[in-house]
Write a structure and sequence with these properties.
469 residues; alpha/beta; Alpha-Beta Plaits; Non-ribosomal Peptide Synthetase Peptidyl Carrier Protein, Chain A; four-stranded antiparallel β-sheet; 11% strand; globular; EC 2.3.1.39; transferase; acyltransferase activity; Ac_transferase_dom_sf; [acyl-carrier-protein] S-malonyltransferase
Length: 469
Amino acid sequence: MTNTVWMFPGPSSHVAGALAQLTEPGTRGAQVLDTVDAVAAEYGWAPVSPLLLGPADETTAQHAGHLWLGFFATSLVLSELLIDAGVPGDTLVGHSGGEVSAMVVAGCMTVEEAARVLCERTKAVDESGLPPSAMVALNAPVFRVSLLCEAVADGTLSVSVDNGPDQVVVSGLLPALDRLEALAAALEIKTHRLKIPSAYHNLILGGAARRLTDRIRHIPVNAPQRRVWSPQLGREMATADDARELLAGTLVLPVRYREALRALYDDGARLFVECGARQVLTELVRQSLPAPAQAVALLTGRAQARLVPQLIKTLSADHGSGWQAGSLLTVKHSASAHVVATPAPVRPPVLQAPARRPEAEPVGASVPAPATVEPAPAPVPSDGLPIETELRDQVRNAYAQALRFPAEMVEDDTELEGELGISSLQRTNVFVQLLNTFELPNPDESVQVFKYRTVAEMAGLLRELAAAR
């Protein structure tokens, strides 16, 4: 039985500048970044640490290799913090390239070895000679997406990722994906082209998979010392041979993440902790599993980084010490060891604000009754919207509710996307909600909504629309 699951997301699960508050020089997290940078340099890639430590935001230029090493380094830095705090992880589960991160935490490979696997994985795809290809997410169940692929009748299409009841990813060559998107549009099925530069988890990468297997054959792989569930293998990964099988198929095997979540839930998992930036896997838990399953996103964006230590402290206090402190960089494991941590009773973690300390009063002093003072009425804006403080509070609460964390985290000048990690779709949904709330007209095409990046700026836009109606 498993109670607590650590989840490791794949590409794009990093946020520029988000680790600056979590990695001090000389810490194990800083050593992880140094190790990843050293491997990146061997392959002629730019270092990843300047991007993750900042100062940087969503507009900062990123090297192509950051897509493959940014999520990896972020997950391992967060894992070091969890391990150091003694937060238990009864089972580890990775998503796509995140399975490599899970293998490091489980003791199958060192940070250095796994970073080389990711670099070789990317090289193998880049050198495959495959025509232009990509990946497309569709908001439909897997059985319906499979029928759409059959209707397109192109052998390069493959259902690559089954994320949830209404989120499936298809990969293939661009002409086939274009036809798939057109068919989906005709059926009013929403699609989204992912920023992944090839058709990963597709048999058309078979040649690249064989090349990768040859290139990483010399890298030692141990049996996991923690329980690992592989969505690509569709079962528990218990031996070194299992780990080798996963690496050999990592480019072609589909990711059955929805099935993995269900299997872990049926086995008793109730708390799922996302060891990465943003909250992609957290949302999948909420979409795929019943209400008793609780999901915690450690790092949704730069603004939440300051709360990560408190969140981890709460997890440790609620669930006891399950992991012995150590470093992912130095611990080497036996090839046959397989240890499962003893599960602790699970309660969803709650972040509590510190209690307000009362002011000291002299002993025996009498406290006069407060005088009744009628506040002066606030001036009512002529545009029909609330006064500025109330308007900003309503905007703040709308974004906080969309991200599912306390409104006090969203300050007037907080970057909604760069610091909070809110997606473009979430921003659009909140904006439409605010327009409906205040009965405002849609802005004309000259207004670029994405340029309004803070609560204060969005409140200003709402006032402009109110004045123009």
